[in-house]
């Protein structure tokens, strides 16, 4: 299968709003966990802990102006900014000659949990249950961020929102690859976004696997296409997703890695870096174990990006790919080899991707 | 190129669960609208919705423990089980790694989000039970299908709002055409909830008692719910096991308005129709029936009709809205539309637009199949789905050839 070239990217995380910022933090931490920063004024509700991994200085108006942005929720703002930055990085100019051929697919867990929950809250606490703000209603719908990105940047091609939590970015890569290969569009902006809020921080802390890594936020977006002229660029070589019913997720993930290797025509020894979406920093790591089972005896370097970026839900693997493309190799040479990214969503949902640097 | 066929239909709806009950209700023009009971609607000026009153997940689910899954996931899994049964598909004979689940939704586990919120309003975030948190992720709708049927292929929940089922059917079609799949369970699910009822009311888009699309005096939607899943197979796979073929999926088209978050866009919808026709390799004169998005708001029905007239000319095919019967089932809506379309082809009738009493002079060229189902030879159907975010999606179904 023809690889899809990565022609531009953007990554906003607690480490900063430049793509290289998180890679620098990852390199500096050398596997240690970043404690996060005091969340302060961006959240008014009580939090499970005072620290988190948020872009505490992020101001959408400073980036995009006031016009059209006043009803954005935080996830939408992060996504729209990231889409714009990625387009700028790619050098692609969107105009009437190509806007129908440029699309967007973004990954999420539940959209903006805060927007939805706050809306429901109004129906409970107002004098009348219908005293909600109609202008905020679209924010309760999970496709809000992708729809607003299309409006802001004039993108009339396929516009999709996929769910899956940590798996969502892999779903987005597959969805985008299909749209391009089937000839529906020429270019897709592919990414994932998650916002910091009390709702997400609590959901992260209360979930069975959660709490060890503080909640985070971020957005990463990649401009991908099948352009022959971009042969030197990084490329998505294979993405495999699957489901393991009856508690067989780990076996399903091993199968996904093997399938991705097969599709990419690659050998395990071609892999120089393994990045899992795990949010645990110690103890058993089932994703790593499941991935390694498909690699024979090969043991690539491995990385858990949530240690640097926090639990960014759907955005974690997208940020991880930005890190992989931003890290320097030995002696500061450009990185090389294949990166294997893995994710496990809820229940039996799993995915793996191979990206050439 | 591989061809894609519909071999099983799984509707869980307010007018009937299972293809026999649903099909009979469509033909009879039955209404599934009643006073809302899943939340207390008494504080709202409008109190009707399209709830699946008698939904008993345990009656349909073989493997999924209902108590661990939210209502929308239960709808999706029950609908998929019904579709598999209707297709007479023995899953033990299927390569499970090549069997996928693709489910569309608007609000995912909205009832769970509301329970989560009610708890935090009452007692604070730290009082929210972990099992509610576990049930929040929208990705579980497709996972419920994969778990219930034991599928090991892709398990994807698309959240493209009210056209999401058409997105799901379209992506499933591609998985089958490109040889990645033998079988895909595709459709959508959503649940009635307070916040959508409130939001549509405040947008001025919620009608009081009955939804009357294409009527001069139409005044909005009613929120509905349910699960709508179709069993799709490659024709080769279906024929090898002697399956009944309801219809063939001929192709689909997607585009984005990139204009306004909620207002529909005539030119963009017309372009989406043209894209769908081009991808399916058909021309407008071949279309026998349009299963309309037909929400029943003054703006939607007018814009949809104008877009259809722009593509089809002054004599478009009949165009009815099943939302008149089941309300707006959000992410499941175009899945129910696809099921109705497949039945129209298979059984030779046009589902009616009920509650229709006054012709709208602005829609004079539109035949909404008023009130009574009509016998017809239906060889090609266009199933429309439009959504917030300008997410337009149109699927074309044809008679088996």
In summary, what is this structure?
Chain A is globular and about 65 Å long. Chain A starts with a strand and ends with a strand. In chain A, 33% of the residues lie in helices and 21% in strands.
Overview of this structure, please?
The complex is a heterodimer of chains A (357) and B (401). With 357 residues, chain A is an alpha/beta fold. Chain A folds into two domains: 227 residues, Thiolase/Chalcone synthase (Peroxisomal Thiolase, Chain A, domain 1), CATH 3.40.47.10; 122 residues, Thiolase/Chalcone synthase (Peroxisomal Thiolase, Chain A, domain 1). Helix content of chain A is 33%, strand content 21%. In chain A, the strands form two sheets. Chain A has a ten-stranded mixed beta sheet with strand order 5-4-6-7-1-8-12-11-9-10, sandwiched between helices. In chain A, strand 9, helix 9 and strand 10 form a beta-alpha-beta unit. In chain A, helix 1 crosses helix 11, helix 3 packs across helix 5 and helix 8 packs across helix 9. Chain A is globular, with a radius of gyration of 19 Å. By secondary structure, chain B is of the alpha/beta class. Chain B folds into two domains: 237 residues, Peroxisomal Thiolase, Chain A, domain 1 (3-Layer(aba) Sandwich), CATH 3.40.47; 149 residues, Peroxisomal Thiolase, Chain A, domain 1 (3-Layer(aba) Sandwich), CATH 3.40.47. Helix content of chain B is 34%, strand content 19%. In chain B, the strands form three sheets. In chain B, strands 1, 2, 5, 6, 7, 8, 9, 10, 11, 14 and 15 form an eleven-stranded mixed beta sheet that branches.
Cα gyration radius of chain B (Å): 19 Å
By oligomeric state, this entry counts as heterodimer
Please tell me how large the radius of gyration of chain A is: 19 Å
| CATH secondary-structure class of the largest domain in chain B | Alpha Beta
**Total E-strand runs of chain B:** 15
Overall 3D geometry of chain B?
globular
Distance between the termini of chain B: 15 Å
CATH architecture of the largest domain in chain B: 3-Layer(aba) Sandwich
In terms of DSSP E residues, the strand content of chain A is 15-25%
Give the helices and strands of chain B as they follow along the chain: EEHEEHHEHHHEHEHEHEHEHEHHEEEE
The N- to C-terminal Cα distance of chain A equals: 17 Å
Structural class of chain A: alpha/beta
What would you say the CATH architecture of the largest domain in chain A is?
3-Layer(aba) Sandwich
Strand content of chain B: 15-25%
Strand order of the largest sheet of chain A: 5-4-6-7-1-8-12-11-9-10
Largest sheet of chain B: 11 strands, mixed
């Amino acid at each position: 299968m023809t690889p899809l070239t990565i022609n531009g990217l953007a990554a906003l995380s607690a480490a900063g709003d430049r793509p290289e910022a998180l890679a620098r933090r990852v390199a500096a931490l050398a596997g240690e966990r970043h404690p996060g920063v005091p969340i302060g004024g961006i959240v008014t509700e009580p939090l499970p802990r005072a620290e988190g991994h948020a872009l505490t200085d992020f101001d959408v108006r400073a980036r995009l102006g006031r016009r059209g942005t006043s009803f954005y929720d935080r996830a939408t703002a992060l996504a729209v900014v990231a889409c714009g930055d990625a387009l700028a990085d790619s050098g692609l100019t969107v105009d009437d000659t190509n806007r129908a051929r440029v699309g967007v697919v973004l990954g999420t867990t539940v959209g903006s949990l805060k927007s939805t929950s706050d809306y429901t809250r109004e129906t409970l606490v107002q004098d009348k249950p219908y005293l909600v703000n109609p202008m905020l209603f679209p924010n309760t719908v999970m496709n809000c961020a992708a729809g607003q990105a299309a409006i802001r940047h004039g993108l009339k091609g396929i516009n999709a929102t996929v769910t899956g939590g940590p798996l969502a970015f892999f779903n987005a890569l597959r969805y985008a690859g299909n749209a391009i290969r089937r000839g529906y569009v020429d270019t897709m902006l592919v990414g994932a976004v998650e916002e910091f809020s009390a709702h997400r921080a609590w959901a992260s802390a209360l979930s069975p696997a959660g709490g060890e890594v503080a909640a985070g936020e971020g957005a990463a977006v990649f401009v991908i296409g099948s352009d022959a002229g971009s042969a030197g660029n990084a490329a998505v070589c294979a993405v495999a997703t699957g489901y393991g019913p009856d508690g067989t997720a780990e076996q399903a993930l091993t199968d996904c890695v093997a399938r991705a290797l097969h599709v990419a025509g690659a050998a395990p020894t071609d892999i120089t870096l393994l990045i899992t979406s795990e949010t645990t920093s110690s103890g058993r790591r089932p994703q790593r174990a499941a991935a390694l089972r498909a690699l024979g005896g090969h043991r690539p370097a491995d990385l858990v990006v949530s240690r640097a970026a926090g639990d960014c839900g759907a955005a974690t693997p997208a940020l991880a790919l930005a890190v992989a493309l931003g890290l320097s190799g030995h002696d500061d040479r450009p990185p090389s080899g294949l990166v294997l990214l893995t994710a496990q969503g809820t229940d039996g949902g799993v995915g793996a991707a191979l990206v050439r640097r | 190129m591989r061809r894609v066929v519909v071999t099983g239909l799984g509707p869980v709806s307010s007018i009937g669960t299972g293809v026999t009950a649903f099909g009979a209700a469509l033909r009879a023009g039955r209404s599934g609208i009643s006073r809302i009971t899943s939340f207390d609607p008494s504080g709202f000026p409008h109190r009707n919705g399209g709830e699946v009153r008698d939904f008993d997940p345990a009656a349909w689910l073989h493997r999924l423990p209902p108590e661990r899954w939210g209502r929308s996931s239960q709808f999706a899994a029950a609908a998929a089980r019904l579709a598999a049964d209707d297709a007479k598909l023995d899953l033990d004979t299927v390569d499970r790694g090549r069997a996928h689940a693709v489910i569309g939704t608007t609000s995912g586990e909205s009832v769970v989000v509301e329970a989560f919120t009610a708890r935090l309003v009452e007692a604070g975030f730290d009082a929210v039970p972990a099992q509610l948190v576990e049930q929040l992720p929208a990705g579980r709708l497709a996972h419920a299908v994969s778990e219930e049927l034991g599928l090991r292929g892709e398990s994807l929940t698309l959240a493209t709002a009210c056209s999401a089922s058409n997105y799901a059917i379209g992506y499933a079609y591609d998985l089958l055409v490109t040889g990645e799949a033998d079988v895909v369970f595709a459709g959508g699910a959503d649940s009635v909830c307070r916040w959508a009822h409130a939001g549509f009311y405040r947008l001025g888009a919620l009608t009081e008692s009955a939804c009357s699309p294409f009527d001069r005096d139409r005044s909005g939607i009613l929120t509905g719910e349910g699960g709508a899943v179709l069993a799709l197979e490659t024709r080769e796979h279906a024929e090898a096991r002697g399956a009944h073929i309801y219809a063939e999926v001929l192709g689909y088209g997607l585009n984005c308005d990139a204009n306004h978050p909620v207002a529909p866009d005539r030119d963009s919808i017309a372009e989406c129709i043209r894209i769908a026709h081009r991808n399916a390799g058909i021309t407008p004169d071949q279309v026998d029936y349009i299963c309309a998005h037909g929400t029943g708001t003054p703006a939607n029905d007018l814009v949809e009709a104008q877009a259809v007239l722009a593509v089809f000319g002054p004599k478009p095919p009949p165009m009815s809205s099943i939302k008149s019967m089941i309300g707006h089932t959000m992410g499941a809506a175009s899945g129910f539309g696809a099921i109705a379309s497949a039945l129209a082809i298979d059984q030779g009738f046009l589902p009616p637009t009920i509650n229709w009493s006054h012709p709208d002079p602005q829609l004079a060229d539109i035949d909404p199949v008023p009130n009574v189902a009509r016998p017809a030879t239906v060889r090609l159907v266009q199933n429309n789905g439009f959504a917030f975010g300008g997410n337009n999606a149109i699927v074309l179904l044809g008679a088996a050839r």
